[in-house]
Amino acid sequence: MCVAIDWDPTALHLRYQCSREKVWREHESVSTCRKLHTEPIDLDHCLKAFTSEERLEAKYHCSNCKDKLPATKKLQIWRLPPILIVHLKRFDYVNNKWVKTQKVVNFPFGSFDPTGYLASVPQETILRHKQLLLDKRKEASIVEEDEVIAEGNLVDIDGEAKTLGESIKTQIVKDKTGGGEKEKTMLTKRRQRLESTSLIKTPIIDKDLQDFHKHKLQDGADPFDLNYQLYAVVSHSGMLNGGHYISYAYNPNGNWYCYNDSSCREVGNIETPPGGGPGTTLPKIDTS
Fold first, then answer.
1. Which CATH class is domain 9-114+227-267?
2. Is the dihedral of CA 143, 226, 222, 274 positive or negative?
3. Which of 184, 188, 147 is nearest to 169 (CA)?
4. SS3 107
5. Between the CA of residue 91 and those of 88, 101, 153, 239, 246, what are the distances in Å?
């Protein structure tokens, strides 16, 4: 039998000074729990938790079986805004009071793609668009390969000089004659669609893919390519009943600035990727 004691540091110091109370063996679960509260997590972890299915304590009344069944709740994003704002929950209700967590959340600076957190219909639309583009590239590469075969350049295969046209043509003829159905299946194979009731109600049509987000993009930009770049961070210091806000923003001149009430100063140590835009290294700022 084991006895688990969660000591309050102040009470242990003031009331229990004898050696017997200080002799204990810390269970491995303590370090595991400590890591869960201190180790940094990624923004993807937060969004997965936000969009995952949650079982509710309350049950709902089924009109068919006339019984109370367990209820679940799931939040899904259908349409993304031009400016995506992520508000991190930093307070937990512990022992009848709100306690602020100091857990660090890592977030990307550029090329943040939130497609995986969308509802089935807009997510499938974007994935289907990418699949069609990939198929077009494969078809183009097959055409280029046929052109190379027609040229018939000399190559050395197993120490024998053969023409590239002969060697590749022989392989292609064997594939077509020996397994024509297999080759046709490989060329026409598509990614499996998501199994969802939303896709049954709103099917995805390849020739008419709908842009649900309708962002105002630059000329030539792909409307189905969802990539956000970080350009501002708002940091809060203090508790729930009061505190102070400081913002960090990316300026078009290529530098990051710290805005604190009436003061504004440049923040260094920012790596800017080729082509401009925010870098991938976060400055030393307090985002708690």
1. alpha beta
2. negative
3. 147
4. coil
5. 9, 6, 68, 9, 18
Distance CA 143, CA 161 (A): 25
Name the pTM for this structure.
Answer: 0.62
One-letter amino acid of 85 = I
Tell me the C-alpha distance between 239 and 260, whole Å: 18
CB 220 within 8 A of CB 207: no
Q: Spell out the alpha helix ranges (H) of the chain.
A: 9-15, 19-22, 28-38, 43-51, 120-151, 164-178, 180-188, 197-201
The span from the CA of 204 to the CA of 153, in Å, is: 45
- Tell me the average confidence (pLDDT) per consecutive run of 10 residues in the chain, 288 residues long: 70 66 73 79 88 86 83 88 89 82 83 88 89 84 63 49 44 48 46 68 81 86 88 86 89 90 82 39 42
How many residues are recorded in the chain?
Answer: 288
